[in-house]
């Protein structure tokens, strides 16, 4: 039992079962007891380690890709450099350090962040001096938008639907004598093909977020890079809890375990196309980093005495480690050159 177990149980007693998305939102974002509100989950002492926390090479490559897009679009003078869900701020700090070597870019780019956790907002302000936090992407000024998002979409609440003989039902969290328990709601008119036993997930906030970002890029210029673990036209139950580096029962410790789902990039790409932007095919994190010189960079750093560079490169790029599980897509204005390392998705791909 955690404080949130009691709160959620009381809520269910009062108004009935809640959706999985609502459960996820409370567990992660409750301002008092939520996972992100109460702790710093990053790094060796936390629950997981993200790519920018593994090594600076990750942020350097992201920074150079965005810098090339900025140069390709004529070096606009006042642009936003936005990161949603920046964790400790390490990625943005590495990107700022990298673009400082690109003449004119550091002066042109204001640092903006979107972060739900007040605790992490303070950490980020220390790490990236002068950064400004926005409530939502709709609050962006009308200037070119250069965005990097790493492991942000996977933290957004998902809805999950189970197919029975009579149609799709949404997965819910309810209560029985033992405590919190999973259940299914009434049949809903979900417009997805499926057979009894099938499970599909949707991340409406993720698609809405990507649509808003892509619409700005289409209108004002810029580029976005989204990195996350997941796939293309995902399928099945990917909802999971991680606590102290170990898988956990997602109902056992609400607020004390990280809850995530695999990111399905196909509907995100479709949202970007609908918004009028160009979008890439997905590439693997490993393939993308290596194609932009991560191997050469690691070798140089190693030769200069960075004892961890080659091991970090392996962790970031090896197919057995993060290299294949993590995928990357990019968004840019139609008619502009693609972001380095990407090629355009056919506009009429089956899922677009
Ligand atoms: N990008 C960072 C951290 C990823 S963890 C890294 O690579 O290390 C997810 C981040 O998103 C955390 O900073 C978390 O507080 C934030 N977050 C989660 N849900 C959010 C939401 N709905 N709105 C804004 N930020 C959110």
What does this entry look like structurally?
The structure is a single chain. With 352 residues, the chain is α/β, with parallel strands linked by helices. It has a single domain, classed as 3-Layer(aba) Sandwich (Rossmann fold), CATH 3.40.50. The protein is built from 13 helices and 17 strands. The protein has helices at 3-15, 20-29, 35-38, 51-54, 56-72, 90-99, 105-108, 118-127, 204-220, 265-274, 285-291, 294-303, 309-317; strands spanning 18-19, 79-84, 109-114, 132-134, 145-150, 159-164, 167-176, 179-188, 199-202, 222-231, 240-243, 246-248, 258-260, 263-264, 277-279, 283-284, 326-333. The strands form 3 sheets. Strands 2, 3, 4, 5, 10, 14, 15, 16 and 17 form a 9-stranded mixed beta sheet that branches. A hairpin with a 2-residue loop joins β7 and β8. The radius of gyration is 21 Å and the shape is globular. The termini are far apart. 47% of the residues are buried. Bound molecules: S-adenosyl-L-homocysteine. S-adenosyl-L-homocysteine is lined by residues 28, 36, 42, 50, 52-53, 84-87, 91, 114-117, 120, 150-152, 155-156.
Element-level helix/strand string: HEHHHHEHHEHEEEEEEHEEEEEHEEHHHE
Number of domains: 1
Which structural class do you get from the secondary structure elements? alpha/beta
Spatial gap, N to C terminus: 43 Å
The biggest beta sheet reads: 9 strands, mixed
């Amino acid at each position: 039992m955690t404080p949130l177990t009691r709160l959620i149980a009381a809520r269910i007693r009062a108004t009935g079962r809640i959706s999985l998305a609502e459960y996820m939102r409370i567990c992660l974002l409750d301002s008092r007891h939520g996972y992100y509100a109460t702790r710093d989950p990053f790094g060796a002492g936390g629950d997981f380690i993200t790519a920018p926390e593994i090594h600076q090479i990750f942020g350097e490559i992201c920074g150079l890709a965005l810098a090339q897009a900025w140069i390709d679009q004529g070096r606009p003078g006042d642009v936003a450099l936005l990161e949603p869900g920046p964790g400790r701020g390490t990625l943005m700090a590495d990107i700022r350090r990298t673009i400082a070597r690109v003449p004119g870019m550091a002066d042109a780019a204001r640092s903006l962040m979107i972060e739900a956790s007040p605790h992490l907002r303070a950490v980020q302000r220390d790490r990236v001096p002068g950064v400004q936090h926005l409530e939502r992407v709709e609050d962006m000024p009308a200037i070119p938008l250069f965005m990097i998002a790493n492991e942000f979409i996977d933290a957004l609440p998902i809805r999950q639907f189970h197919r029975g003989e009579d149609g799709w039902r949404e997965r819910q969290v309810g209560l029985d004598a033992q405590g919190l328990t999973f259940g299914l709601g009434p049949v809903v008119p979900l417009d997805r093909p499926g057979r009894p036993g099938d499970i599909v997930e949707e991340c409406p906030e993720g698609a809405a977020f990507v649509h808003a970002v892509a619409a700005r890029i289409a209108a004002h210029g810029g580029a976005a890079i989204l990195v996350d673990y997941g796939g293309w036209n995902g399928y099945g139950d990917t909802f999971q809890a991680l606590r102290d580096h170990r898988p956990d029962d997602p109902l056992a410790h609400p607020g004390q375990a990280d809850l995530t789902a695999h990111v399905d990039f196909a509907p995100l790409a479709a949202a970007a196309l609908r918004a009028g932007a160009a979008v890439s095919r997905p590439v693997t994190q490993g393939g993308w980093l290596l194609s932009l010189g991560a191997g050469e960079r690691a070798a140089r750093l190693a030769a200069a005495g960075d004892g961890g560079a080659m091991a970090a490169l392996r962790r970031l790029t090896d197919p057995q480690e993060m290299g294949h599980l993590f995928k990357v897509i990019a968004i840019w204005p139609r008619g502009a050159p693609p972001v380095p390392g990407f090629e355009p998705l056919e506009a009429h791909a089956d899922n677009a």
